[in-house]
Write a structure and sequence with these properties.
eight-stranded antiparallel β-sheet; 24% strand; 25 strands; binds fructose -6-phosphate; seven-stranded antiparallel β-sheet; alpha/beta; 584 residues; 35% helix
């Protein structure tokens, strides 16, 4: 959610920052901007649109020190004026986060003064200008005492040949190079630029020059933050011959499942230790991560026979939930930085619960809170829509449920990557994609575990194709929603549970009788024959009933991808969205 990059070195800063911003575009792409410092003078360039809008002009920006930003608009519409950097007096700043008390601060310190933008962020540069008396760290500390909300801010100041970073509740990392140093929201911005990074703590202020990095903690004491290997490499950002990251990442589902299985072996005993004696499990996350939690609820209740609830993190954290020390909270987040999920995990810690983080991001905030971190082996996921991380999460959750139940889940999971590959090789989703692209709305239906995947199928389709869609339990249709079914609607019914196949096929008949179009994603024997000439049948391989989501997920992901292409949407960068939602 907004990406920031900073550079201090001997090379032209605008080039390095531009390339870094390109890698962070998944965090937002409403506007972009760069400010550099040259001979004590700040120059800035900022435009509405994607990072590439800057390309033709970046050579105008001289200097070997600078900051850049790619924006996901929160306060103030996407426009040139609201684009970062915000420049005032001796300062330019870029900000990721939300300053919740910006109106109060504006009123208190600036009265009726008109600002240049409608953003919450401009208050930061105005306050810096107001409080600065030659001591940059002192001014940053002063503003940190009055800002409320979340922020990772990078600053350049005309008096200092370097960049400064201030962080609270939003991610900021430092990168260590050779004669050059960096700041960024996330490691991909620094792929190929530096092999070592540090993650800043809340309240940290960092001063970064080409020669070194000084970090001050909340009490302005000098500190050294642990140096970590930068796992993002240029190879991990390659499209691998695919036209889009989304397709590349769906094709990496088998590897994601297998890597997750292998990585779990290294944490299994810790998971066992942390979850010993747990009597209830709450699973939390947002969006796709929440949807993978719905699958996990089935695993835990079926295998372990203890109560499990799945909660949307943004609701859970505010509903005063009952959490006892005998509760385990499993917090799921691809990025490990989603504000609601991180806060939900903090709440669980404060109530004495055990916290398990299931995440794709090894150095993220979530990993610092949890009692145990279960890695998702998806590797870097660039497409805004989650695909291989969803299946990786399901694999991780299956393994956790196995540990709780004392079952060898790893053994069962072993066969799945091969079946995922078969699904990818043989699936033909084009006809259904065409049906969805022409439809007035798509309903994803299923029962039990298939319903959990139906919700994810619906989210994926609406997210990247903008075709209106809902996910429903197959049995619920007749309780109201059936009124919406007509010749323009498509029902995609997921049927992988032999036990419930007959019941789900009832829903198929109900839609067909109302002239709706139907497609079935299924591995149930004989279904093609029963539906011949009446419904589109997409077959996926037969497998263990609990692991079928790993195969049906591929089908719904490919369906969303192909529908988006037919409608000429950009599947990697859907409108209005960003990956890594670090604000509320
Ligand atoms: C949908 C999608 C989002 C994320 C959600 C949580 O394709 O990607 O719904 O799943 O924003 O993000 P993480 O998993 O990073 O917490």
């Amino acid at each position: 959610m907004c990406g920031i990059v900073g550079f201090a070195g001997a090379r032209r800063a605008s080039d390095i920052i531009y390339n870094g911003l390109k890698q962070l575009e998944y965090r937002g792409y409403d506007s972009a901007g760069i400010a550099t410092l040259s001979d004590g003078k700040i120059s800035a360039l900022k435009r509405r649109g994607r990072v590439s809008v800057l390309e033709s002009e970046i050579e105008k920006l001289g200097g070997v020190t600078g900051i850049g930003h790619t924006r996901w608009a929160t306060h103030g519409k996407p426009s040139d004026e609201n684009a970062h950097p915000h420049v005032f007096g001796k300062f330019a700043i870029v900000h990721n986060g939300i300053i919740e008390n910006y109106s109060d601060l504006k009123e208190k310190y600036f009265g009726g003064v008109k600002f240049n933008s409608d953003t919450d962020s401009e208050i930061i540069v105005r306050l810096l200008d107001k409080f600065y008396g030659g001591d940059l760290v002192g001014a940053l500390k002063k503003i940190s005492l009055i800002l409320k909300g979340s922020y990772a801010v990078a600053v350049i100041c005309a008096d200092f040949e370097g960049i400064a970073v201030l962080k609270r509740n939003n991610p900021a990392i430092i990168g260590y190079g050779d004669g050059e140093n960096f700041a960024a929201s996330d490691a991909p911005a620094l792929a190929g630029l530096c092999s070592e990074i540090s993650v800043l703590d809340d309240g940290d202020i960092a001063l970064i020059t080409k020669d070194g990095v000084n970090i001050f903690d909340e009490n302005l004491q000098g500190v050294v933050r642990e140096r970590l290997v930068n796992l993002a490499t240029p190879a991990s950002l390659d499209l691998g011959g695919c036209p889009h990251y989304m397709l590349k990442e769906i094709r990496e589902v088998p590897a994601s499942v297998e890597r997750t299985r292998l990585a779990y072996l290294t944490v299994e005993s810790k998971v066992k230790e942390v979850l010993r004696g747990v009597k209830r499990v709450i699973i939390t996350g947002c969006g796709t991560a929440y949807n993978s939690g719905l699958v996990a609820k089935r695993y835990i209740e079926s295998f372990v026979k203890i109560p499990a609830e799945t909660e949307i993190a943004g609701e859970f954290r505010y509903k005063n939930p009952v959490i006892t020390p005998e509760t385990a909270v499993i917090a799921i987040s691809q990025s490990g930085e989603t504000a609601d999920t991180v806060e939900a995990a903090k709440l669980a810690v404060s109530c004495g619960a055990k916290v398990v983080a299931v995440t794709n991001a090894p150095y993220s905030q979530l990993t610092r809170i949890a009692d145990v971190v279960v890695p998702v082996g998806a590797g870097s996921e660039i497409c805004v829509a989650a695909t291989k991380s969803y299946t990786g999460q399901i694999a991780a959750l299956y393994l956790i449920a196995g540990t709780l139940a004392g079952i060898d889940a790893s053994e069962k999971l072993l066969k799945i990557p091969k079946l995922c590959k078969e699904t990818l090789e043989h699936i033909d989703i084009d006809t259904l994609a065409d049906m969805c692209a022409r439809s007035g709305g798509v309903y994803f239906l299923g029962r039990d575990i298939d319903y959990a995947v139906a919700l994810e199928g619906s989210l994926k389709l609406k997210e990247i194709s903008y075709v209106p869609s809902e996910g429903y339990p197959a049995g619920e249709l007749k309780h109201g929603t059936l009124a919406l079914i007509d010749i323009k609607t498509v029902a995609v019914v997921i049927i992988t549970d032999e036990r419930l196949a007959g019941k789900s096929e009832n829903a198929v008949e109900q839609v067909l009788s109302r002239k709706g179009k139907v497609a079935v994603i299924s591995n149930v024997a004989g279904i093609e024959k029963r539906l011949e000439g009446r419904a589109e049948v997409i077959k996926i391989p037969a497998c263990d009933e609990f692991l079928s989501p790993l195969l049906s997920a591929i089908a719904v992901q490919l369906l969303a991808y192909k529908t988006a292409l037919l409608l000429d949407r950009d599947p990697d960068k859907p409108r209005n969205l960003a990956k890594s939602v670090t604000v509320e």
